[in-house]
Amino acid sequence: MSSERDERPVRPTVEDGTAAAASELIGGPMGRRALPGGWWTPVRVIALVAIGMFALGMVQKLPCYDHGWFFGATTQYTHACYSDIPHLYTGRGFDAGLLPYFDRIPQSLSGGMDYLEYPVLTGLFMEVAALLTPGGGTVQYREQMYWIVNAGMLLACTAVIAVCVARTHRRRPWDALLVALAPAFALTATINWDLFAVALTAAAMLMWSRGRGVAAGILIGLAAAAKLYPLLLLGPLFVLCLRAGRLRSFAGAAAGAAGAWLVVNLPVMITHDAGGFHVREGWAKFYTFSQERPVDFGSVWLFISQRTGNPLDDANTYVSLLMVLGCLGLGALALCAPRRPRFAQLAFLVVALFILVNKVYSPQYVLWLVPLAALARPKWRDFLVWQACEVLYFLGIWFYLAYTGSGDKHQGLPPEGYQLAIAVHLLGTLFFCALVVRDILLPERDVVRRDGSDDPSGGVLDGAPDIVVAGAARRARQAANPQDRADGTRVQWGTGSRNP
């Protein structure tokens, strides 16, 4: 591991057959005597590719930019170029100068929403974009400019994601090319504001990989103030730090996350009147809306509801139960696996679990998983199979909305076709999850560990000894050293060999 050869970046065209075959489009795999370097470093190349793909995604939205968002209910669906951004510019009062969480939205604008239904940092992102949007002209012009401004800000988020993923695994920067070239990433990047939270989460993963636990926690807290899902990463960190006996590092990260979230939310959350301090209704809207919304597009619950005719009013109970059971299962996997799972593997699995059991699956939610998938299992064939499933779902939901919005014409995808699209999305995600679980149970199949690495994105966990284990891991450890106590506190395992 200390040789000069071992420090060179891993080239996917050498270890991955699909990447090698695809490289023939640009002249074939890099030769042994090639001398990469200079200005064209892997990180810069990946960032530029990500920016180029983002630009192609913007071009794909061109039919809607010209007319689809404004004229005709189904054009934005038949061209698969829908975006929430221009619609919410006027629908949430940004055009009228309303302040999120403080000003109530008139019913004539919102169509039923009294306050902005997004977390605080996303609301700030939207407000900053509104302030940067040129005034004057028609409402259509201002909505177009608002989308352009947001697209520019989201482009910056894309560059951050690409750079952070490329630098998280020091010897595997090219794995971030999976993110840069992901078709579902480009297609969904400007549907909503999810990329902001994804960028903060990617930065948190990078900080953790560098051993900066408090900084990682602060970024997780900020990401959770923009979208709720990044909080799930604290679960894998806890069980992995428990197994490695590094709970102090987890405590620093958890404290940083809680502190950052409170600093951002408290000024908007708390209001005071003659009756004392209260939680502001506008701040709470995101949480009450998430709790009260019925089963919605893309979820397994909508599939069941449409097939059975049952509205599943108690879906919240099912979601909560499955999340608890799933998290317990992942915790058991982390403690019982023959080798401690990598942080990226468990992070991908817990976010995928949330997506699979949630009441809604918007097309842009795939953005949450793409960077984690590239770090968890950088295999091009399997990644592209999963991406193909997501692209099919992306097309399926828009054609289904075209069908439901075209009146008696029914032009688009009927409910049975949309249910098939949901099934494809669910099965594609489960397929990738199954491969990640297999890599955990059979660590010799893990492509990241083939060079002897332990957990390149694990920070203090990388090469740390195992302290708390259970099941098969404990039996394997006791077999390696029968003199160790049954609780295993004497044996210290890191990368597979005993440490003194």
Automatic annotation (TrEMBL):
<dbReference type="InterPro" id="IPR016570">
    <property type="entry name" value="UCP010361"/>
</dbReference>
<feature type="transmembrane region" description="Helical">
    <location>
        <begin position="39"/>
        <end position="59"/>
    </location>
</feature>
<keyword id="KW-0472">Membrane</keyword>
<feature type="region of interest" description="Disordered">
    <location>
        <begin position="476"/>
        <end position="500"/>
    </location>
</feature>
<dbReference type="InterPro" id="IPR018584">
    <property type="entry name" value="GT87"/>
</dbReference>
<feature type="transmembrane region" description="Helical">
    <location>
        <begin position="383"/>
        <end position="405"/>
    </location>
</feature>
<feature type="transmembrane region" description="Helical">
    <location>
        <begin position="178"/>
        <end position="208"/>
    </location>
</feature>
<dbReference type="GO" id="GO:0016758">
    <property type="term" value="F:hexosyltransferase activity"/>
</dbReference>
<protein>
    <submittedName>
        <fullName>DUF2029 domain-containing protein</fullName>
    </submittedName>
</protein>
<comment type="similarity">
    <text>Belongs to the glycosyltransferase 87 family.</text>
</comment>
<keyword id="KW-0808">Transferase</keyword>
<feature type="transmembrane region" description="Helical">
    <location>
        <begin position="249"/>
        <end position="270"/>
    </location>
</feature>
<keyword id="KW-1003">Cell membrane</keyword>
<dbReference type="GO" id="GO:0005886">
    <property type="term" value="C:plasma membrane"/>
</dbReference>
<feature type="transmembrane region" description="Helical">
    <location>
        <begin position="417"/>
        <end position="437"/>
    </location>
</feature>
<feature type="transmembrane region" description="Helical">
    <location>
        <begin position="214"/>
        <end position="242"/>
    </location>
</feature>
<keyword id="KW-0812">Transmembrane</keyword>
<feature type="transmembrane region" description="Helical">
    <location>
        <begin position="145"/>
        <end position="166"/>
    </location>
</feature>
<feature type="transmembrane region" description="Helical">
    <location>
        <begin position="317"/>
        <end position="336"/>
    </location>
</feature>
<keyword id="KW-1133">Transmembrane helix</keyword>
<dbReference type="Pfam" id="PF09594">
    <property type="entry name" value="GT87"/>
</dbReference>
<feature type="transmembrane region" description="Helical">
    <location>
        <begin position="343"/>
        <end position="363"/>
    </location>
</feature>
